[in-house]
């Protein structure tokens, strides 16, 4: 399907970039959660199996959120046991203590909490102040750590917010510090509305380092709403970031709507990293086959440019 | 339309980038040349006027190619006088001496020749060897320079070629040197099939510098076939490049087909540069209005993510 015999993309390493990148695959959770039509549990399970077969080593599997909030992921109890034996990391989202209980009962070894950098989002999403929302996560993180689980903290709206606009860097740093201080092992800086640009990325990462947050604890989660996701990723790699969130086939939000979440497509990321000679362990052909299959399940084409370019029937 | 009151994108300059970038707008020529339905001359003229009103200072207007080859641009003689009084640079493509005659007769002050880095493309496009194709351009460039015209040399297939795959950097350097030696004032490195990645870009630019080609004579022309155009542009800016080719609304080739030329959308570029605090002189709202209008003329939506995000009706 791809054309390695043509030597494309030509692998030309660039100075100052990491030798390997861990792709944190979010398609099965973040990518599917806003799908209108219910995706059958067996399709989700096959999707995750295929992603693992394609070489992805970290695959966020589902969310133990209340089914009322995210009906698409109401099958978490049914899904997780169908994938939990895969030899990959399978983090799951836990919104609160009840969600953590459910995840722990199924033996989840990695969990993630979903915080935000802004008052407006905390208010809109949780009807809490920012500090109240952080206080809500504290017992979740504490308990997960006591139980020996690995904990990721998402910080949504890390660059911009639809109500507040540009988010001051010190505010993001404060939330990151709070999540690390309560015990999170890693953080994911989310550009939920896609308004980050490369200089902003570097500035936030530098400010975090200055506040004592080591680069190796940080991942980046860019959205392609304004076409910036891959350029922002390059800027993050130049800063030393080695964990990049991406969604197979660009799943997650319709790219034609303003409300697009527009997740960075894993294939476009793998193409860039392959060109940079950076190891990901991903088999691009298998991944594209998976995304084409998933697009068929959902009944619409993948927005990933790499998937479109390489899956086109001659 | 955009939301400057929200301060987005937050302008955060990054180290080592230029203070200003000249956008070389190719929508009216490269963007339209492969359109199937004939675009009326008055629409093309209005498009160019609107682009100038939006602040673009270099707008490639048309091509004086034989009408048999590019029927869409057969109206070059009718179009050019309708835009030639605009206070912007209006380069035109001239494929050969006959095309140059036509351009000079209309008073064109800037012309461009379209060379290639590979034997396969020279063979397919001109039925000549690479050296024969360069020999064909020599009298065109010579005469344009004798007449006091500014000459741009395009080098298509500067990174990859659909027949040969990855193109060796020394071969691209040789073609660039030949074009400069025959008198070209500037060059545009074209990633015609979109397979460049950031390290490859830096490596080619460095090799050109080592061969005595100064960075200020170079522009970059990236395609988004694999989603890499903006990341590659960032890499080029980091090398000191200050001329970037882009196409308003991403005009040029269907993004859904493998054969997509998939020009970098000017709006996505302006969004990134605005975020980096780099001056372009472009009014993004006016440009988006123009691309939305042009998309209506062509009867299909713009593939630019920034146009989609900001032109969405609430």
TrEMBL record, chains A, B:
InterPro entries referenced in this protein's UniProt entry, alphabetically: Aldolase_TIM (IPR013785), HMGL (IPR043594), PYR_CT (IPR000891)
One GO-annotated biological process of the protein: L-leucine catabolic process
Membrane-spanning parts: none
Domain Pyruvate carboxyltransferase, residue spans: 21-288
Keywords on record: Lyase, Metal-binding
Molecular function per GO: hydroxymethylglutaryl-CoA lyase activity; metal ion binding
PROSITE patterns the record matches: PYR_CT (PS50991)
Family: Belongs to the HMG-CoA lyase family.
Protein name per its UniProtKB record: Hydroxymethylglutaryl-CoA lyase
Organismal lineage: Bacteria, Bacillati, Actinomycetota, Actinomycetes, Kitasatosporales
